[in-house]
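Lab meeting prep.
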Amino acid sequence: MKKWASFEEQMELLAQRGCVIGDRKFCLEALKRTSYYRLSAYLLPFKDGDRYTEGTTFERVHQIYEFDRKLRTLLFSAIEEIEVFFRVQVAHYHAKKYGERGYYDAVNFREHNRHGELMARLKKEVDRNKKVPYVKHHIERYDGSFPLWVAVELFSFGTLAKFYADMHSTDQKQLSKIMYPGTSYNNSVLKSWLQCLTGLRNVCAHYGRLYYRPFSTPKPPAKIEFDLKNKLFDMTYVMRSLHPKEESWNNTILPQITALIEQYEGHINLGYIGFPPDWEEKLMK
């Protein structure tokens, strides 16, 4: 187990390992605000054994951290729009076909053995949120029974993804056509993409590192001219594909990503997040 070290000792450890510290006061304040452990993750691309490559500066590492932090906030906001869109569409489709409480019946899903898990997760969320007004209302007036369009508001993104994955194959296919008409995003692609976005969302929600990090490899749609791998670019392409508002993505979100990359282009390496030279063209809807 590593021993406790003061902020000053942490700064000296960075210097001993070859990280150039131009402004000691700035470095010390950054360590107090952010923590050595968190910032050290952004030094991984510069590691050479137990030391850092020549010319590695703390100022550059901190700039990469700032880029990552701002990008995480931007992507998390875009994921929110996708998640809310899916909640609406899944609930609307399933309740229309099977009734407002049809999700209580395992026969309306393909994976009957996982239906119990869904209901257990819902019960847990109801218990955890029983003082929230709309939850309390349904407990008191409807004996704890929730129509699906209310229940989905208690679902995590992961639960929502599993709900879609457990729907009958014919329902998955029909819903994918409703949500993304004219595309090749079939049900197996959507299942993979939702699972990948769940992982990305959790990283963003817990302030995790995006830079120099591997992700799950999303399944490619039928019509795509490049390979999807396991980098942040591929997650961003999935977001671009699932985002419900073309104008919002092209005119707001994508320009924000572009501006952020331009702001930090002297400090970041786009290869470490998998962004190819023509990334803007590929991310345009």
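Slide two material, second protein:
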Amino acid sequence: MTDPELPTPAKSRIRRPQDARAVRSREALRGALLALVETKPFEQIAIKEITERAGVSYPVFFRQFNSKEELLEDIAAGEVRNLLGRTNRALTSPNIEQNLFEMCDYVNGHRALWTALLTGGAAAAMRAEFTRISDEIRKSRERSNPWMPSELATAFVVSGLFEILSWWLRQPPNYPVGNVVKLIDVLIIRSTLQPVDIELE
């Protein structure tokens, strides 16, 4: 009879042991996929290519991840946290425009990766991670508009940022970053995050 307290194999992979060798393997696999996605579309990358680039065996991959999509989702979580950390600094800094430029430059500098994350197999995970981390940020900072339902504001900001970035990455690579900054400023910052003196009934 199976002990109900023992994790299933799937749960074991989710928990992922934290010994140094396992951590090194995960980092190597992340690095390999990050490098490969800069050279070809995610859909064309085989797990064998990832493991060869990472210098780990095929079985090691499946001890860490169920699929290459799950590996991409794992990368997505770190990238979203990085981006939203930059966004949060932009929103709390007196020089919002400069910080938005830095945020967009970061995405533009990792364009192939962010295209894969926002328009490929990790899109649903990206949106969920955007929402989860934005909610953490929302709870940790003072609200500019106390009258605005905070859950609605979070959903609006997350969806808006997600849609703007996704749209941008479908444009030609020479599309001006300054235009993206203006879109984020007008559609998200001014409409949601800057103080507005109104009252709801």
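Talking points for slide two:
Residues 70-193 form a domain with the Tetracycline Repressor; domain 2 fold (CATH 1.10.357).
The chain has two domains: 9-66, 70-193.
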